[in-house]
Amino acid sequence: MSAEVTIHKGLDNVIIDESRLSLVDGAEGRLIYSGYKIEDLAENALYEEVVFLLWNNRLPTADELESLRAEIAAGAAVPAPVLAMMQQFPQDADPMAVLRTATSALAFYDPDAEDSSPEANRRKAARMTGQVTSLSAAWPRIRKGLAPVAPRADYNLAQNFMYMLNDEEPEVNAVNAINAFMVLLTEHGMNASTFVARATTSTKSDMHSAIVSAIGTLKGSLHGGANAAAMRMFLEIGEVENVEPWFVNNIKNGGGKIMGIGHRVYKVYDPRAAVLHDRAEKLARASGNGKWFDIAENLANLALADDYFIDRKLYPNVDYYSAIVLYTLGLDVDMFTPLFAMSRMAGWTAHVMEQTASNRLMRPDVIYTGEVDLPWVPLAERN
To answer: Full-prediction pTM beyond 0.70?
Structure first.
């Protein structure tokens, strides 16, 4: 291998393009969506406002917001054949495998499926943003033998998700928590699933294929599964008084890892975690069961007070406290990652449209380390 060649394992520090969609500043702990701080958006914005922002590079007027909300809600219904197909899936199927498969099947019933013009992509983005939310609410019901609930045309996405999940008028605090979660998880630079969505798009494949690629990538435990892993860790700890002995036995002496602590990019506190910390505490206290938040808080404080973790600059990330939020809302732990996917739809679709507008086929390279010029050995002479 030539001395001049540098291999970037994991594509660290490799810049593949320019984007106006988000700034992820790991050194300063900042996250910006198209010019706006994540803290301001999580506090004030409806998810559909962030969708409009990423798709149009500006915030909507009141009329534009209502138009987009209505468009997404109107297109959010899942075609009956897709729901019928889901009802044939094994009840113990991985929810992300279900979401991946059902999202792919949506293309059969989308009139714009094979049209990648800017206008068609914009229509598909609106439909799919609503439909992936509907799929994420449908599967928990279908696997329990309950009928899926159709979305309401007068609801926003956060309202519709809670309505379709529980088949009842959504509670305001739950809707606000889901909306904040969705805003915080909407977009995050060139993460693995976004990169894969853009790579798929670079081949001039269609938007459904790009989103399916992204969902398949998010399914991986090193990307989208950390919040579920964090909650399983809290459940394993079980009680607040178990936090310290669990930490000593499993982490300090056992060499284990605290799920939801540390981040590939952020070297300081994840700004999304700071927002969700307060949301998780308020929701937990209001629910009358603050145990899971207290376990998470004590464990985080214990880790941050330990020299081993301070030296490595490991802090809670968005997955850590989002686990508490979703669990308090009654979500099954294995449904946490599909909620990540439905939140990320605005970002993924925005990247697909951005890639389409200024496309070049992605074709990275590798350094070959195998042998060369081996002599051919006939089959009968091989040992």
So the answer is: yes
